[in-house]
Design brief:
single chain; 142 residues; alpha+beta; 5-stranded antiparallel sheet; 5 strands
Amino acid sequence: MTAKIGYDEVEIGTELPSRGFPLTRATLVRYAGASGDFNPIHWNEKFAKEVGLPDVIAHGMFTMAEAIRVVTDWVGDPGAVIEYGVRFTKPVVVPNDDQGALIEVSAKVAAKLEDNQVRVDLTAMSAGQKVLGMSRAVVQLA
């Protein structure tokens, strides 16, 4: 696969389509099984509260992976992401109800680089709080 977006098609400030990613406790259990990360803060409400968390929280790597989907969906090729990094600023709290939590992600082209690459800055929010800081990806465009 190759990127479906051409370098000449984007400008600094180009906004990528925003997305919301719902998650529930069941999502966290499935992710724990797939990743092998069975830390009880991600599934055991009693334990999470005992260690000072407000409730069960989503895995950081899960949050990070959901956020980059905005970029990979836009560019059309997950392999076009050359670099990706974030700082975890707030946890995504996942209540034990039928609604769970929502990670809302927006992104925009922040810089045009050499060799048909762009830097995309992402904003990830949950419950009105920024959950990822310095969330940036470098993407190879066509």
